[in-house]
Amino acid sequence: MAEAIEGHGGELALAAARAFGVNEMFTLSGGHVFPLYDAAHKIGFPIYDVRHEQTAVFAAEAVAKLQRRPGLAVLTAGPGVTNGISGLTSAFFNASPVLVLGGRAPQFRWGSGSLQEFDHVPLVAPITKYAGTVTDTDAIPGEVRAALTAALTAHRGPAFLDLPLEIVFSTGEAAAPGEPAVPVLEADPDEVSRAATLLASAERPVIIAGSDVWGGDAIAELRAAAEALQVPVFTNGMGRGALPPSHPLAFAKARRPALNEADVVCVIGTPLDFRLGFGEFGAAQVVHIVDAPSQRASHVETAVSPAGDLRRILTALAEHSGDRADHAEWIQGLRTAEDAGKARDAEAMAAETDLIKPARIYGELRKVLAPDAVTIGDGGDFVSYAGRYLEPAQPGTWLDPGPYGCLGTGMGYAMGARVTYPDRQICVLMGDGAAGFSLMDAESLVRQGLPVVMVVGNNGIWGLEKHPMQAMYGYDVAADLQPGLRYDDVVKALGGAGETVEKAAEIGPALERAFAAGVPYLVNVLTDPGDAYPRSSNLA
Fold first, then answer.
1. Which of 13, 291, 508, 528 qualifies as a FRET site for 179, CA 20 to 30 Å off?
2. What family name appears in the similarity comment (predicted)?
3. What number of other Cβ atoms are within 10 A of residue 462's Cβ?
């Protein structure tokens, strides 16, 4: 007879989640989900609580991103779930295997007006891989297993389960959860061969690698393919750091000449969205390698688009035995452009101007960040500079909101990163606009002993809106914040520490104090409101 587990619904749910590697719970207290807390308390399972449900989901997503395994958020019924929807949507766009267990008003009196009675599933179904309401206590482990299997199956993404009050509080019995069985998709070998041939025979090929290369645990295979075919590599999202900055095929500053002159552009593990000019690369042939057929671009014509397990596809590229063009001259030309770009950046990062230029902040950060530091971007204009001036030394050390562009990820991502890496530097980069979304959760970090460093680029405006509105209309509205606001005093009042910096020469010493403090510490840097990150519109 197969081994069985029994207990109340919270115990059954937690046992099933633990079988998939879930090691912690992020939540905001609510009576509908008390059995899940009881189950965790009985076995010493870590619970991290927050001040807004979006932070719980973002924290679970950070764990899912960094550890490439499910993260768990537990949200109470009604507003608890709806407050977490932006986090769920970000996880959906980022292919993050997050499981949200939601409380639900009792099913037996549905329609009678119970507290926080609301049918969540139709709301979350479009932004999850799996969404359902569990109607029998004995079915909870099987439903959790099905939800997590869907979340981990490429293309990965979040899952949601509703647990009605009487279901989660009742006792039940079910078969013990077994080992996860996640299917692996095999790509069409002819498509893989065609992609390899195009890259190998191209005169000016380029690879762009994105987050799914990290999420699919294919970093080593990407390096092997790039080295075997001798193709320069650019990255975005969690693909950053896939090749260390010193690698002869790693490029960041020469992107424009590379994409303007390439004859084959191979995009791996990231969509052909606004971040990549919607996949319009001039006369270049486009190879789009994705982890599932659903991720193939439908708005542009591609030469070939293999879909399947990225490790296997990239291994096949590395093992390609056909003819290969010599890319040495192409690579050398890009290296010249790269070196020129780095020289321009170095000058900007050393700027002595007061008012402080955002680039100078990143110049000082580069001096104090350890190679394995986890850097988190939560903002628009200020974080755009981070993407330009910070070059992760290792893969899996960069977190940003991703293509959904949701502000407010910072404190949740910081919590998940600190839980993942107790001994690493964790640095959150926030615009002063983004700080307004989640800074109250600095209290959650303080109370639970989770030190992080927060750097706020404080220009007193919504930078991505004020400057474009001025250019378009000659005026701006709803684009100003309070100049010089003391965000460091907010964190101090919540039990942490911090300081305000007004001179460029003071940035470095302030950062050193922040990383040595051992508590949540905010460095509030007053920056030039007239300095805007150069960009063309990505709205269309």
1. 291
2. Belongs to the TPP enzyme family.
3. 20
